[in-house]
Amino acid sequence: MDYGTLRGIFTVLIFVLFIIIVLWAYNKNRKSSFDEAANSIFDDDNNDNVNKDKQETNNNV
Question: How confident is the model at residue 31 (pLDDT cuts 50, 70, 90)?
Fold first, then answer.
């Protein structure tokens, strides 16, 4: 095998991996977990109390 053949095999493997990731990401079974992760930033039940107790300080001045 020469260098060009190895590069071709590597390119095909990366392309197949890309297709697998795209199919996984756009799978309808994953939609609910992705929606939950996307909306988790708006759930301020526990994070609101923690942030009020902490005061940000800038000690680099």
Answer: confident
Residue type, 52: K
State pLDDT tens for residues 34-56.
889 899 999 876 655 555 556 67
Q: Long-range CB contacts (< 8 A, 24+ apart) of 23-30?
A: none
Give pLDDT, residue 46: 61
SS3 29: helix
DSSP the chain: --HHHHHHHHHHHHHHHHHHHHHHHT-GGGHHHHHHHHHGGG--TTHHHHHHH-----TT-
30 within 8 A of 24, measured Cβ to Cβ: yes
